[in-house]
Amino acid sequence: MTAFIQGLPKVELHLHIEGSLEPELAFELAKRNNIDIPYESPEALKLAYEFEDLQSFLDIYYQGANVLQSEQDFYDLTMAYLVRCKQDNVIHTEIFFDPQTHTDRGIAFETVFNGIHRALDVGESELGISSHLIMCFLRHLSEESAIDTLEQSLPFKDKIIGVGLDSSELGHPPEKFTRVFNMAVEAGYLTVAHAGEEGPAQNIIDSLEMLKVSRVDHGVRCVEDDKLLARLIEEKTPLTVCPLSNIKLCVFDDMKQHNIVELLRKGVAVTINSDDPSYFGGYMTDNFLAVNEAHPMTHQELAQFTLNAIEGSFISDEMKNRYREQVMDYVSKF
Ligand code: ADE
Ligand code: ZN
Q: How many domains is the chain partitioned into structurally?
């Protein structure tokens, strides 16, 4: 099954580009930019990646982003991620970036955007990986700051497919961002939001109703509300689940307790994603392998994760058809 999973074409819909910063690259960028990292070595930094909840991770993650300074840094970060994608047979990826993490440190929006976007262009032309970019608002910051970020993004609107909502879910419910999400929809952006990761099922309902999201990031706590679960199945709402992330952040005690396969078998449009692979111990293939080890699946079930991701992605119908055929072809020939 390992070979099948390795070769399976994959589509990633939940990846924070800042969360793909590997310790080795962090040290290289720190040297390049004359920034001090309070750890002796990449290995020592990696040992600090032990988390008890989302917040304990976010504290380290935002600190880690300090080494990103120039457009070239953002380019190098994104290229490194795309090269890993290629190894894992990822054919399409929709990437989150958090502008406020950088603009609050005095880095210009266009520095961040240009570096990431230039790499995505090269990823498409040289690695054959298609992509979209989604700009996230940090929910622990104010609505005003989110509106300011939305305004800064407008000159780049044709190259950003949507807006999202990430960071601390507890204490920062979807309703705090209703106004800025309405503004984003009016500007032509699609919307997604993290919900039901640490927060209650009600956050999923509010994201659907108040933020008009096309898909829900994480969403694993939907099982706490039977009516919501039935609605997600009926409306085919994609959930971008991140299995290794959920274990590292103690959303589930271990992979055997994870509900992703149960959700798949109930007919929920679940997908497998890596979230912040450098911090959580694995990229796409690692996530598929870990889920399959705890919950053995058939080839068709494993392929269904990719088919769900294709359907839930923001690519054209024509591309969806092409990618679907690629997956079916792979399964039939394996
Ligand atoms: N930012 C990066 N990873 C995140 C996660 N898993 N949840 C919320 N915000 C995040
Ligand atoms: Zn996330």
A: 1
